[in-house]
Amino acid sequence: MAGFVDTSEFRNGLKIEIDGEPFVIEYFQHVKPGKGSAFVRTKIRSLLSGRVLEPTLKSGDKVGVPDIEEKDMQFLYVQGEDYYFMDTRNYEQTFLGEKVLGEAKNFLKENITVSVVFWNGKAIAVNLPNSVDLKVTECDPGVRGDTVSGALKPAKLETGYTVSVPLFINEGDVLKIDTRDGKYLTRVATGG
């Protein structure tokens, strides 16, 4: 543990450690009731399991600061259920399991640079860029002039992820996909 932080220093996105497990604060609210002492309502998500807790802490309580480090790493390849990453500065490699990656695996293509989160020297999570460009490998052909507002069709991307896209998208097109919600943003390039 790298030290302690007081509840008065809480902010969204702050990483804290409770009972030896790292969490990130998703929401907090300082409450000062008319009677009794002040307290802090929090909503925290585990960086290890993803479970969400909503503990109430007394104002002035101290919680630990986890030994967290983030490194920019390049995604290399998948072997079985393990996804391998390389530190571009010293060429050290590490891997994360499919279960740990969760939905992030849908947006990983070879050579993409991501931020890998380490806790006590062990890789525990990946932070993706807000959007990635992925090529369409399978979809029904687009029909010229078929621009009905709001009409969508499924398209399979190079990572195996399926996304809903407008009717004018064709196989070979490169699309910008939002990694936060997995939705189509725009077409970057048309397939040749």
UniProtKB/TrEMBL annotation:
Domain Elongation factor P C-terminal: start-end pairs: 132-187
Main localization, broad class: cytoplasm
UniProt KW keywords: Cytoplasm, Elongation factor, Protein biosynthesis
PROSITE patterns named among the record's database cross-references: EFP
Gene Ontology MF terms in the entry: translation elongation factor activity
InterPro entries per UniProt: Elong-fact-P_C (IPR015365), NA-bd_OB-fold (IPR012340), Rib_uL2_dom2 (IPR014722), Transl_elong_fac_P/YeiP (IPR020599), Transl_elong_KOW-like (IPR013185), Transl_elong_P/YeiP_cen (IPR001059), Transl_elong_P/YeiP_CS (IPR013852), Transl_elongation_fac_P (IPR011768)
Pfam families named among the record's database cross-references: EFP (PF01132), EFP_N (PF08207), Elong-fact-P_C (PF09285)
UniProt GO cellular component terms: cytosol
Subcellular location: Cytoplasm
UniProt keyword Protein biosynthesis, yes or no: yes
Family in the record: Belongs to the elongation factor P family.
Stated role: Involved in peptide bond synthesis. Stimulates efficient translation and peptide-bond synthesis on native or reconstituted 70S ribosomes in vitro. Probably functions indirectly by altering the affinity of the ribosome for aminoacyl-tRNA, thus increasing their reactivity as acceptors for peptidyl transferase.
Name this polypeptide is given: Elongation factor P
Taxonomic classification: Bacteria, Pseudomonadati, Myxococcota, Myxococcia, Myxococcales
Gene name for this UniProt entry: efp
